[in-house]
Amino acid sequence: MDRTSAILACGVTIFLCGAICNRTRHALERAGITVIPWLTGTDCQVLEGFLRGGLAELTMPGVTV
């Protein structure tokens, strides 16, 4: 099973991550998954930021949102 299939099998609809290669990102997006890349912080910080709509402050340095 490839990565995209494994992620889809888990029921994922939004994928929060740090660095991601374009090939994987595009495969996920083609499968209907929203990808929010270039995030930094602990898993709890990222989840909290997502839930309160504050991911911009967790974007990796040098990345424009």
TrEMBL record:
Highest taxon listed in the record's lineage: Bacteria
Q: Cite the InterPro entries for this sequence.
A: DiNase_FeMo-co_biosyn_sf (IPR036105)
The record's section on SUPFAM superfamilies has: Nitrogenase accessory factor-like
Q: What is this protein called?
A: NifB/NifX family molybdenum-iron cluster-binding protein
